[in-house]
Amino acid sequence: MSVIRFIVKRFIISIVTIFLLVTLSFFLLRTLPGNPFQTETLLTVEMQEKMMSYYGLDKPLFEQYLTYMQNLLQGDLGYSIKYRNRTVNEIIATSFPVSADLGLRALAVALPIGLFLGVLSARKRGKLTDYLCVLLSVIGVSIPSFILGSFLQYIFALKLQILPMAQWQTEWHTILPTIALALSLLAILTRVMRASMLEVMSQDYVKTAKAKGLSEGKIVRRHQIRNASIPILTMLGPMVTSVLMGTFVVEKIFALPGLGQHFINSITGLDYTVTLGLTVFFGIFMVFANFLVDIAYGIVDPRIRLMK
Amino acid sequence: MSRSEQFMIENPFERVGATDHANDPIVRPTISFWSDVRRRLIANRVAMFGLICIILILILAIIVPELSSYSYMDQNLSNTNAAPSRDHFFGTDSLGRDLWVRVWVGARVSLAVGIFGSIIPSVIGIVIGGISGYFGGFIDTIIMRAVDIIICIPSMIYVILIMLVFGSGPIPLIIAFALTGWMGAARDVRGLILQLKEREFVLASKLLGASHLSLIFKHLVPNTLGIVVVGMTMSVPGAIFQEAYLSFIGLGISPPIPSWGQLANLGTAVFRIYPYQLLIPALLISITMLSFNLFGDGLRDALDPKLRS
């Protein structure tokens, strides 16, 4: 199968996924009991109905769905019901950069350290260094980011008072949330890189390289790490997801003005358009990330393309 | 089996006299696959440590709420935020509720969600993957395309949406996990069955007239159980984490029923003054996830000799 056909196939799958995601989210959200205006106690039933018709929420569901899809194709996610005069696009535009900033920082910390520890651990297999790395990775996987975040706050902001507690203002403010988010990523990366290196180290081409007299350093750099990094590529897709999800809670703990709080508030406040808009945004973002990763993977490792 | 025995009795060429068994007796007890796995697992001290922790936590979760004189809902407003003491091992919360009892009732909820939240999706995955791999062709293509698509959808978003539809509580949470978590197991099982169905033992039971269903679920699926069980063990900490995560942001388990995530959430509100209220549920979540991870690692090593050094 040629590269182009592979890309086209992945692209079609991604488009179908996004369509399915939007449709399912739309109908799931609209089957929820209650309406967004119930919580405002001053509104009578007639006024609630009037508000519903003002936002077009009283029309037949399928008609609403068609309108929504039409707007979506033009990149318009609609108005928030709760925040007056704010579109979902505006909410995303102001708060997504914060979430993305935090996520990228965490990735930038976790990726090099995780890969380094993975390689180190595999090279020193069975030694103390290896056990320490494995221990770190198991512990890292086992501590949820929200718990780690709270403890970092307690130790560094409250007891030692060397770092700010919350908010997103200076570089110093970014340190604790970044660590809270990065540790579990780092742990997973170490684990996968270690397993992958161990597998590569026993391959025949490594023996060949050794037999033809390459230096140890060259074998590790040119033959082992390069091949061992391929599985890391597949992980990047799911990792983007977990970083985004992780930012929700980390944002909550550190009171950061990211997307997470809007998502959670809109769910509890039945702000349909915001919940739906953010779900669609996250969904497209993640599906697109997965698509890119798949393509990169298929190009780097021809075996994947040939498999199907 | 019964068919082959009948066949042997009616065999006109039956051997009379000395049998192979008598000439060559088996002196050592035979070690089956699973007893070998058990032997290796017991030899792995780290995995055993994980298992012991899990069992200990399970026992405490079962007996503590039964034996304690407090219930998880009893409020005592004259004794709020008390430090751990002999009356209240883990202290009390901001409404004067005994945290020792609340933590272990929470353990019931969290463990139930964790364990059923990974067993049920795995079983669904086995059935779908088994059918897909065994029949192949058109059915396989349809199912696998569907899996390709569903697996791309970030499951957390769906868990949240499903929770909204069914309400918050342990059972909706397990339903949500069941609906979103079966694809991985289905893929694994299908892949294994594709390899296994070409093997001779499958041909043999086909010749003996085994039906499709008994071929899939009696002969093929049991041979894939190893990997599925490892996957299941490894997904328990994931499910516990998701429950804690959802309860932490206020969507998972709603009060008054406690769960570890919810206790941690309540704990963060006051942890600057009473750190133990967060520390205790946080430690329990971490220890439980750690134990399942260690045990799962050991189980994988025991099941797959290729991975051992």
TrEMBL record, chain A:
Signal peptide: none annotated. InterPro entries: BPD_transp_1_N, MetI-like, MetI-like_sf. The chain crosses the membrane at residues 12-29, 102-120, 132-155, 175-193, 228-250, 276-300. It is a multi-pass membrane protein. It holds the Pfam family BPD_transp_1_N. It comes from the Bacteria. One of its GO terms (biological process) is transmembrane transport. One of its GO terms (cellular component) is plasma membrane. Residues 96-297 form the ABC transmembrane type-1 domain. Belongs to the binding-protein-dependent transport system permease family. This is Oligopeptide transport system permease protein.
From TrEMBL, chain B:
This is Oligopeptide transport system permease protein. One of its GO terms (cellular component) is plasma membrane. Keywords: Cell membrane, Membrane, Transmembrane, Transmembrane helix, Transport. One of its GO terms (biological process) is transmembrane transport. The keyword Disulfide bond does not apply. The chain crosses the membrane at residues 46-64, 109-135, 227-253, 274-295. Belongs to the binding-protein-dependent transport system permease family. It is a multi-pass membrane protein. It is found in: Cell membrane. PROSITE patterns: ABC_TM1. InterPro entries: BP-dependent_transpt_permease (IPR050366), MetI-like (IPR000515), MetI-like_sf (IPR035906), OppC_N (IPR025966). Residues 107-296 form the ABC transmembrane type-1 domain. The keyword Transmembrane helix applies. Its main location: membrane. Pfam families: BPD_transp_1, OppC_N.
